[in-house]
Amino acid sequence: MKVIVFGASGMVGQGVLRECVLDDQVESVLLVSRRATSGHHPKVREIVHEDFTDLSAIEGELTGLDACFFCLGVSAAGRSEEEYRTITHDYPLAAARALASNGRELTFVYVSGEGTDSTERGRSMWARVKGRTENELLAMDLRAYMFRPGYIQPRNGATSRTPMYRVLYGLTAWLYPVLRRLLPKQTTTTEHLGRAMLAVVGLRGEGPHILHSPEINRLGT
């Protein structure tokens, strides 16, 4: 299996990358990043690309792939709707269009979030934008799966790039077992997310296409 990962430097992306490296069925992993990172496993290759709304300059690298794990995302806090839409909608759609054009059946996994608004008409800006993104991805000629995790516990060294979140996760890590018992339908881990993404590739377009934490945890166990 050959996969491509967007957003590998973020908390979710770190967890997904780790599971890809550990999985013997994954032959190679291509990372698309704005800034070069280091310390990658031999089967990981990285492309540095600045404009995620236009991938035409690297189209030649986007062939022969079996799956795309789109983990790139930001918090809506303090951002205008236009800025948030560019990152949360325009980036994944540009990636999906570029990958869909290579003529190969490809599984595209988009990390959305619990509370995403599929009607695109709700009062919450972030939920509307993600709902639009999901709807457009699901309408494309791809094996598209939308992941809607609730609370995500970082595992195996995965860390958030947002300072406030890093502090929050550090302070509440000991609470996760309690949260898992009290809110089993709202909690998951970076480890389960990564394993579940690999698992849906094997579904070959079958099964539910919007997955919440219970489905993620079942597939990622």
Overview features:
seven-stranded parallel beta sheet; two-stranded parallel sheet; 221 residues; globular
Tell me the layout of helices and strands:
Blueprint: E1 2-6, H1 11-22, E2 28-33, E3 44-48, E4 67-70, H2 81-100, E5 107-111, H3 125-138, E6 143-148, E7 151-153, H4 163-172, H5 176-182, E8 187-189, H6 190-201, E9 210-212, H7 213-219
Parallel strand pairs: 1-2, 1-4, 2-3, 4-5, 5-6, 6-9, 7-8
Helix pairs in contact: 1-6, 2-3, 6-7
Verbal overview:
- With 221 residues, the protein is an alpha/beta fold.
- The chain is built from seven helices and nine strands, in the order βαβββαβαββααβαβα.
- The strands form two sheets. The chain has a seven-stranded parallel sheet, sandwiched between helices. Strands 7-8 form a two-stranded parallel ribbon.
- Strand 4, helix 2 and strand 5 form a beta-alpha-beta unit.
- Helix 2 packs parallel to helix 3.
- It is globular and about 45 Å long.
- The mean pLDDT is 92.
